[in-house]
Amino acid sequence: MTKLEKIYEGKAKILYTTKKPHLLIQYFKDDATAFDATKRGTILEKGIYNNKISAKLFELLKNAGVPIHFVRLLNDREMLVKKVEIIPVEVTVRNITAGGMSKMLGLAEGIKLEKPVLEYHYKNDSLHDPLINDDHIQALKLATEKEMKKIARLSLKINEVLKDFFAKVNVTLVDFKLEFGRFKGKIILADEISPDTCRFWDSSTGEKLDKDRFRRDLGNIEEAYKEMYKRIFSI
Ligand code: 5GP
What we know:
alpha+beta, Phosphorylase Kinase, domain 1, D-amino Acid Aminotransferase, Chain A, domain 1, 2 domains, 14 strands
């Protein structure tokens, strides 16, 4: 499948059209940004790790019955995906306090939550992805009530599948961000699932194995992505 026209360039990925109108090529860059792109850098080979990690996790979710945009891996940095209409709501699933939730509620990081917490953020960098609820989403017509019910159910299912998978490679899934889209009238999972979009902590040592190493200047960033890649492909 060859790339035709670039139709979108985001912070970490580029989308190209193909000769099939319903399929796109998703290209993964090494560029890294944080804090609404006020911090910028490059993580060597991140695009390769994120492409392959996302492909493996999408396959896992597909086998568990989750509808996904992923069609197949094309090469080191590219995957073929279904062309969706992205819903401008970022869904965050949290199992343990960290990051934005700790900051917002004045909580230490690392507290196990009694139940998974779902958060919705309006996808808008200039507004810093503000927290919104179902009422905002429906009132602003970002998605319907029925679509949000489906998104919530799928997000919790994805959490269960991923939590079990990562436990097998001694990784605690702290939290992650998902994006969904509409394809032929149905809600399907889009975007990526990678160390860019998840918090992964080594279950024995608590070591951070994700983009927080870049966000917080912890060093050994490439090593963390490579370590997650190795563990994910060890089973
Ligand atoms: P937080 O809200 O604590 O900053 O992020 C929660 C989780 O969602 C983290 O795993 C983080 O990586 C992911 N996340 C939230 N918003 C974004 C975003 O805009 N970009 C990326 N790459 N990940 C995000």
